[in-house]
Amino acid sequence: MAHDNNKNREFLPLDIAILTVSDTRTEANDTSGGLLRDRLTVAGHRLADKQIDPDDVYRIRATVAAWIASPAVQVVITTGGTGVTGRDGTPEAITPLFDKTIDGFGEMFRSLSWPDIGTSTLQSRCTAGVANGTYIFCLPGSTGACATGWDELIEKQLDYRTRPCNLAELLPRLKET
Question: Which 3 state secondary structure label does DSSP give 117?
C-alpha cells in the first residue's frame, strides 16, 4: 500500500511537549495527558515537557508560546478546552500563534470520531497548525479522543518513515541533518 511505513528509512525521534488544559486535573488523575505521554514514548519520541494549565486563555497561550520559542520542543500536543461550553478556550489561546493552520487535521479527526460519538463530533473544535517551525495539535480532553488523535493521525504524521509524506520530514531541524 502506498501509505505504509517505509522500513528503509530510519526512525527519527522528536521532542514533544504535552499540555493538559483543565481546571480539575492533577498529575494523579490526568489520564489524557498520561495516555499521550505513554503513546509518544512507546513510539520512540522524547517527552520534552508536560504541564497542566487551568482553562485560562492567557496561561495556555503563555505556556505554548514558551515551547514554540524553545529549540528543545518540535511538537506540542494539548488536550482539553476544545469544546463549546464553559471556559473552553484552547482554540482561542492557540490559533493566534499559528503561522499556518493544518485544516485537514480537524476535519479528519471529526470524521474518525463519527463512528464512536456521532453528531457529538460537531462540538469538537480540535485544531492544528505550525508556529515558529513547531507543530501544534489541540485535542479534546477525553482519553478516547486523545487515543483517536494520536493513533489515527498524529503518530503516523510524526513518523519520518510514513510515506508518501509526513510532517516530521518538514521540520527544520531534520532538514538540516
Answer: helix
